[in-house]
């Protein structure tokens, strides 16, 4: 059985050089301009808090909400860790955009055949036994790649070795049920824009718990199928509308809201 991979991001070692974003963009054939927010052409971006920098990207959750809400299986969690996207299956419902607790997936609003874009965790590289492009590009060791269990040991070792340097928490060890992105930090994670309300329970379990209180919700196969039909139909409507808007604006793209 393949060992689950992860990245350890040590906020105390990050110098804000942006080499991780440059490496990611090169890997994914994206324009090399520096971007401050996640976008269709930036799968990772840096947020600055006083003198600290924090990387943003898909967390590759162990129990991903985006996977659980996708009605057609276009998003899947692999044994190695990456949450991967299959554009051929995607019907454009955008449930994953709404469901992701980290506001990660971006949508090609201006395309007539829109896709979702987000960090791939370099799944193709991992499958070949290679590290992620961003970890390879990082000059300080602020982003390291490896087996998740080993990185958890390393993170705990760093926290224990220098009491006072780090807050005693590995973000992602248990948050939202655990993630492939692990962070250690010299300041509380709330001060770095992490949402402390997310808790440790996998988000899909919370959703199921809430749904189970709704009468008949677990016998709604027909409703689900009708929903899928509606989504497919709606997608055609949305595409027609967006194509017409795009042509009115002579190709100007509708920009989605940026999220840090
Ligand atoms: S961070 Fe969002 S997009 Fe990434 S795996 Fe988790 S739920 Fe899915
Ligand atoms: S894992 Fe790959 S796709 Fe994700 S941020 Fe790093 S280089 Fe980019
Ligand atoms: S490459 Fe490393 S040091 Fe540079 S911004 Fe990214 S994580 Fe920080």
Structure description:
With 260 residues, the chain is α+β, with helices and mostly antiparallel strands. The protein has one domain (5-210): Alpha-Beta Plaits. Helix content is 31%, strand content 13%. The chain has a three-stranded mixed beta sheet with strand order 8-1-9. A two-stranded antiparallel ribbon has the order 2-3. It has a two-stranded antiparallel ribbon with strand order 4-5. The longest helix is centred in the C-terminal third of the chain and has 28 residues, at 221-248.
Write the layout of secondary structure elements.
Elements: E1 5-10, H1 19-27, E2 45-49, E3 52-56, H2 65-69, E4 75-77, E5 83-85, H3 95-99, E6 106-107, E7 116-117, H4 123-127, H5 133-137, E8 143-147, H6 148-161, E9 181-184, H7 203-212, H8 221-248
Parallel strand pairs: 1-9
Antiparallel strand pairs: 1-8, 2-3, 4-5, 6-7
The chain binds iron/sulfur cluster (SF4) (3 copies).
One iron/sulfur cluster binds at residues 58-61, 64-66, 83, 100, 102, 104-105, 118.
